[in-house]
Amino acid sequence: MWEQIHLLCPLAQPEQILLDFEKGAINSFEHVWPNTVVKCCFFHQTQNTWRHVQSDCTHNRELAMRPLKIPTLEFARPADVPDLFEQVSMDLPLTSEIGELVDYFERTYIGRTLATGHHVAATFPIGLWNYHFSTPFGLPRTTNAVEAWHRSFNATVGCHHPTIWKFLLALKREQGLVEVRQTNYLAGKPPTKRRRSQQSEQVLKTLAGEYYSPNHTKTKFHTSVETISA
């Protein structure tokens, strides 16, 4: 699919793309656009981890989510993530269930160094899901907006197997909506975000700016991000 898009739009050179946690899609995209920054959806990472909590942890699932501290890991400097992950993991009681969950997260998202000194890369390296450097620019971290559009367009079509004429009519309606949004945007009226989302985004940008200040501490950063994400 990516190769066909590249053939249709040979001059397109996206700076960054947001994908789900699917190795096939990631590898094929990087093959076509090797210079594009690939990021994965934060929401799907949390969702994947919660599924493991539900299957592996039969007691106190809320406690089991604590060692992961995904929001904190997402916004910390990538080089700090392994140490931060180890730090928050050590705050948890040592149970076999939580140990299995921590091992899963480490294998999948962090990577590990064996006793022999050999480093085993994560299935999805930190750079794919960490947003420390892109947060100041307000770039999206989830594919929720695209999925919301899919639901809306499916509702417009109204069935799974429309005729070609019904599908074209739905496309014309969608094109009309896009042109209205585009006109509003060019007129200085971009889509509004919820007040809470705007406030959280601004706090995250501030935290990102203060990350390298002398007064920054990992504990303070961790507490601030957890408060926003609660």
Q: Which runs of at least 5 residues are low in confidence (pLDDT < 50)?
A: none
Largest sheet: 2 strands, parallel
Q: How large is the count of helical segments?
A: 12
Structural class: mainly alpha
What does this 3D model show about the protein?
The protein is mainly alpha-helical and 230 residues long. It folds into two domains: 2-40, no CATH class; 42-140 and 196-229, no CATH class. The chain has twelve helices and four strands. It has helices spanning 2-8, 23-32, 42-56, 61-65, 70-75, 81-89, 96-110, 126-129, 144-157, 164-186, 195-210, 218-229; strands spanning 16-19, 37-40, 112-113, 119-120. The strands form two sheets. A two-stranded parallel ribbon has the order 1-2. Strands 3-4 form a two-stranded antiparallel ribbon. The model has no long low-confidence stretch (mean pLDDT 81).
Give the SSE layout.
Layout: H1 2-8, E1 16-19, H2 23-32, E2 37-40, H3 42-56, H4 61-65, H5 70-75, H6 81-89, H7 96-110, E3 112-113, E4 119-120, H8 126-129, H9 144-157, H10 164-186, H11 195-210, H12 218-229
Parallel strand pairs: 1-2
Antiparallel strand pairs: 3-4
Output the keywords.
230 residues, mainly alpha, two-stranded parallel ribbon, two-stranded antiparallel ribbon, 12 helices, MULE transposase domain-containing protein
Summarize the structure.
This protein is 59% helix and 5% strand. The protein contains twelve helices and four strands, in the order αβαβαααααββααααα.
